Amino acid sequence: MLKITLPDGSVREVAPGTTPADIAAAIGPGLAKAAIAARVDGDLRDITRPLEADAALALVTAKDEADALELARHDFAHLLAEAVQQLFPGTQITFGPATEDGFYYDFAPDPKRGPFTEEDLPVIEEKMRELIRADKPLRREVWSREDLIARWQAEGETFKAQWAAELPEGEELTVYWSGNDWLDMCRGPHLASTGKLDPQAFKLTRVSGAYWRGDQKNAMLSRIYGTGWLNRKQLDAHLHMLEEAGKRDHRKLGAEMDLFHLQAEAHGSVFWHPKGYIIWRQLESYLRRRLDAAGYQEVKTPQIMDARQWEQSGHWGKYRENMFVIPDEVPNTEDEGPVVSHDAAWMALKPMNCPAHVLIFRQGIKSYRDLPLRMAEMGCCHRNEPHGALHGLMRVRQFTQDDAHIFCREDQLVSEVAQFCDLLDVVYKDLGFADYAIKLALRPEKRFGTDEMWDWSEQSLRDAVAATGRNTPEWGWEELPGEGAFYAPKLEFHLTDAIGRTWQVGTIQTDTVLPERLDASYVGEDGERHRPVMLHRAILGSYERFIGILIEHYAGKFPLWLAPVQAVVATIVSDADPYAQEVLEKLRATGIRAEADVRNEKINYKVREHSLAKVPNLLVVGRREAEETTVALRELGKEGQTILSLDDAIARLAKEALAPDMR
């Protein structure tokens, strides 16, 4: 008999082959109906998969939302593949995972038919609902590699056959049947049957191209995306959020507000227009003042460094595919022949600033009294992102980090991390993000350094967050196994925006590897050389991405201190043009970013136009205002207007336009 330990500590003895579903039924009919899967020794498994040994068992229900959503989305992906193959014979399937808010599946359509389009989605959705209503059982089987490859080859599934052949030797290969007429290769787990899904809780959203295995040298596939949930209410809430996100899309608003643009001549690099660069400059000035007050010293380091430096730091071996490399030679100026030779030495555009900061630290002898040393850089970096992965400001090739590195002694680490958490908290709240979560990303499988070093680094970060009182569920505290960098664990800070989306932005990492590899040291109180601990940290992450987040968070309606145009003086009649010019000059003299609109247009037209342009304040002037030296102030998002003397209006706007740290 097997001994199965339940969450309450009780132990049940069952025969080998008993399933979690059998145990749920033995406990009671309510649980038997509610249970959808099980955790066996912590691993998520099918509710109908037989137990093979003594184990700890926890039954999963829809109340365990994270697990339930993962299962449902995995099932929706399989249903999508089955529906497509039923509707479009000759389509090959590849793979389709669950995603953060849904699922997708990649297909190789019959060449005679051509790629799928969004016009195909409604009929595919209806076929998926038909399969759900059929309540087909989902059944797991273990196959031999040879049988599985033979099956795929016989059915013309060349992509699946290739995938099966490349899976590691010794790995258990499993398939899942949908009923008795369709199967897919999958690790699982799945729900017990298709009928466990809500047919009204999913929607197919779009179609795109995708390369097989993500390699542009491989065949182009059709990727169909969907969003999947546990019920219709969740789906409707998500679709509403997507609708809001569409209205807030930073690319759309960036064009409408004349902030920036991107074009193919500089893939992944941003052309900042004057209004967009005002936002950048205000953000940079604000952050620089915060860093100055926190004891940081700002530096500037080279864009290009010798490949040998990147080899020594470890980035050349771990990160080279994401680096732009440059031959260190004069290019051939002749029309014939290669532009560069094959024997040139190599340099690289920096993808990050940290090795250069170590080189600055190494200049001159450092004492234990010099630490902590906080070194900041608004550093322009380049990363060789695939063209297909680029996305507006959110994913670019050239970006500027609000980067800093803190070199400290081991006994200073907890205090330095805690101070950083406090600084970050102030910045996020100043920028309108009161709600954020803190996660600890732990050691990955492939990493530098000893286990003892990782134990100490991870515990130090835990202790630092605990010292600030933020290691609680209210702060979203969570540990993420395997998510750390190859050289260090890290704290991640996840912002929640105005419509509930989360963005991983700030980080701080403890690193004892890079100081060792680049030979950074200080003289301790004992007169001996010691390695400093290096803290890699950023608050915004990159200016480009953070400004994109700000645009979407505020839907373009920036707080006054960040708004590119803070006020527009609009005339009702041409007689007020000279007064409008006087108002404009006084606003600008006070430091307010203002413009005048003296066009021969009706005032309602001007109000509507500047409201659409997200101008925070409209100062309307006519004959009366000119005579009385007043303005009619209209604030964006508010009804009506306020009549103020010109001096009072300017004083009010000047006060409101101050950055948060200057109020």
From TrEMBL:
Keywords on record: Aminoacyl-tRNA synthetase, ATP-binding, Cytoplasm, Ligase, Metal-binding, Nucleotide-binding, Protein biosynthesis, RNA-binding, tRNA-binding, Zinc
One GO BP annotation of this record: threonyl-tRNA aminoacylation
SUPFAM superfamilies: Class II aaRS ABD-related, Class II aaRS and biotin synthetases, TGS-like, ThrRS/AlaRS common domain
Cofactor: Zn(2+)
Listed GO MF terms: ATP binding; metal ion binding; threonine-tRNA ligase activity; tRNA binding
Signal peptide extent: none
EC class name: ligase
Domain TGS: 1-61
Residues spanning the membrane: none
InterPro entries in the record: aa-tRNA-synt_IIb (IPR002314), aa-tRNA-synth_II (IPR006195), aa-tRNA-synth_II/BPL/LPL (IPR045864), Anticodon-bd (IPR004154), Anticodon-bd_dom_sf (IPR036621), Beta-grasp_dom_sf (IPR012675), TGS (IPR004095), TGS-like (IPR012676)
Cofactor note: Binds 1 zinc ion per subunit.
Catalytic activity: tRNA(Thr) + L-threonine + ATP = L-threonyl-tRNA(Thr) + AMP + diphosphate + H(+)
Ranges for domain Aminoacyl-transfer RNA synthetases class-II family profile: 236-559
Subcellular location: Cytoplasm
Gene3D superfamilies named in the record: 3.10.20.30, 3.30.54.20, Anticodon-binding domain, Bira Bifunctional Protein, Domain 2, Threonyl-trna Synthetase, Chain A, domain 2
EC identifiers of the protein: 6.1.1.3
GO cellular component, one term: cytoplasm
Annotated residues for binding of Zn(2+): 354, 405, 536
Matches recorded under PANTHER family: THREONINE--TRNA LIGASE, CHLOROPLASTIC_MITOCHONDRIAL 2 (PTHR11451:SF44), THREONINE-TRNA LIGASE (PTHR11451)
Subunit structure: Homodimer.
Family: Belongs to the class-II aminoacyl-tRNA synthetase family.
The name this protein goes by in its record: Threonine--tRNA ligase
Organism: Sphingobium baderi LL03
